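Practice record 12: protein with 1-deoxymannojirimycin.
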Amino acid sequence: MSFQLPRNIPNFSDGIRKVENITWQGFKGGSDLPLYKDKPWASPLRRPRFYRRKRSYLILLLLTSIVLFFRPWVTIASRARRLRPPQKVVYGDSWEDRREQIRQSFVSSWDAYSRDAWGMDEYHPLTSSGRNMVHDGMGWIIVDALDTLMIMNLTTQLEAAREWVDTKLSYDKDHNVNVFETTIRMLGGLLSAHYLSKDDLYLEKATDLGNRLVGAYDSASGIPYASVNLQTGQGEPSHVDGGASSTSEATTVQLEMKYLSKLTGEAIYWKKAEKVIQVVESNKAEAGLLPIFVHPTTGAFRGSEIRLGSRGDSYYEYLLKQYLQTNKKEIVYKDMYAEAMLGVRKHLLKYSNPNKLAFIAELPQGIGGPLSPKMDHLVCFMGGNLALGATEGKTAVQAKSRGWTGQMEMDLLLGGQITESCFQMYNTTATGLAPEIVYFNMEQDDGTEDMSINERDAHNLQRPETIESLFVMWRITGDPKYREWGWQIFQAFEKWTKLESGAYASVSDVTRIPPPPRNNMESFWLAETLKYLYLLFSPIDLLPLTDVVFNTEAHPLPRFDMEPLFQTGWARKTDDVKSTT
Ligand code: DMJ
């Protein structure tokens, strides 16, 4: 089997290609990427001065030990973490060495999965077993990882994966599946694999799957039902939440459906997906901030809860990326995105004490209600998203040379601040791994800890969002601290999530040494976390942000011209928009 690499995908004929020196326009201190050993070990994080002093550090350690000795009742609940400097750099590792180490982690994860659970939808690394979500499986792990195999040039593994897709994968299943997850992981994975390889097999499978998914949109409003039966195409409302769909799920299918239309020339996928945004927009949500549930029957929101974490997150991501996907022609999405980001600043953006870490809070009762200082790790995509919105994929230096506004500057700055807060979610735990959720400290006088972790939220599912933002921030700013932070996080994954078998597992408590492993490896570990890490240490012309959009599962799709076949089929009625400005 052979596959053709599109522009900007390096063909690694001799195994791993060397990372060449890349000229970074306007890069401080020279035109080449700096060597790692030239970098100071500590980045200029805001942190108490005593952390910089070794002697004081020892005193602090001693005092902490005494306090802990006399306070055995200290429990995990509400455990707070102080900021600390990033770990010392291990000198001698070059960027390409590091990239190769990440590639080896992928190989190790893949080999373990192949050995223990080949073809299965779930992988249970502790019991060396797997499970299918539907009869004979739907390619959950294999399809999600196809493009990572291509990007990492793992040709032998790719051959086996393609063979499985060709001979075993069928979506003709009398089974309800989640519309959003199936779209972002399976449809997105197949489309991206086709984009990178031009192999028709993947497009055939994608088209078949797309045809099975469109039935989900046949609700009274056009909002997709939460699930769909892949054989009958019958949509199925959620069994909880009054039958409402998650807002982020309904509004995070557009990149995939529109690209499928572009490839096949069939307008149906485009129209179905586009209609969803028109319906949610017609609710005229205040400040562009959407409640997290929407009814497929009426198209109205359910409840008033607002957050950029679970059930809200990728709506804001896909507004921006829809605008970018069709080469910045669909201004409607740019407007909605800009309105929402102003809404985020006005209603959700807060800074913690004592170190003023930026975070995006939640409004459990909507605008006007009390604010919760809770932030899901899921929100961490926002750092990179804000930067991407500011420069539209160019480097900051390129973007600043023409039409740069104060708003863009502020968005880029905020993107960096959110990314730093997300890095601190890792940097402040005992394991160096982030928990699923943190609570930021907003009290003025209770100012020693910036964030705390509840026992129920202390797990780590190997999620990608912080790495994703580090990758985007690195590409846009060229600041090597983002690579250093990514490397530190990778090392924590290596240290605490790798099993003797070579598999990698989620962990149930990032505040415990060692963190207890969970019998689970999510497909996004291969599809997203390791891919974004690999790209963080790759040349910047590999999948340039000016040419591609990554779907929310990290599957790269090309930007394209929608004309002449397609156009935006709707417009905002702006006269009654409740603006935040
Ligand atoms: C992935 O499936 C996607 O990134 C999605 O947008 C959010 N949840 C997981 C990763 O955390």
